Amino acid sequence: MKAELQSKLYAAYPIIFAQKDLDMTKTAMCWGISCGDGWYDLINELCENIQNHVNNFNRNKPEEAHMVCQATQVKEKFGGLCFYTYGGDEYIDGMISFAESMSYHICTDCGQRSAKNESNRGWIYTLCNSCKENK
Q1: Cβ atoms of 71 and 45 closer than 8 Å
Q2: Confidence of residue 120 (pLDDT cuts 50, 70, 90)
């Protein structure tokens, strides 16, 4: 993902991406968000929903009962989004699972609806026909 889009996500969700500056021995977020720009909207919506859920859960709770949800790695693998976290709950796990499923139908390059395609080098990408021709 382009640095400018990644920075927008980091700025909008500083708690979710709190591990971005940690050492590689502690987190994989030090490598940044490793996917195409086409999934920016999908990741943004997922993070917004996670943050809203955490905020609502934590409202009027004592500090020791607060829920935390931090991304530990965000990447593309086998043509789909992988969004790994520390903390959260089953509701957040469901949102992540849904977003990961949706990624198989969204072009990783441009964000248009697509189908999973395999490139001639054996890598699996989720690309629309237009972006597949340009790969």
Answers
A1: no
A2: low
Q: How far apart are the first and last CA of the chain?
A: 16
Q: Helix H segments across the chain?
A: 3-12, 40-58, 90-103, 129-134
* pLDDT tens digits for range 37-91: 999 999 999 999 999 999 999 988 877 788 999 999 999 998 999 999 999 999 9
Nearest-angstrom CA–CA distance, 43 and 23: 23
Q: Which pLDDT does position 92 carry in this prediction?
A: 98
- How much is the pTM? 0.92
CB atoms within 10 A of CB 80: 21
Reduced to 3 states (helix: H, G, I; strand: E, B; else coil), residue 62 is coil
By the 8 A CB rule, do 92 and 85 touch?
A: yes
Residues 6+ apart with CB under 8 A from 40: 1, 5, 8, 9, 111
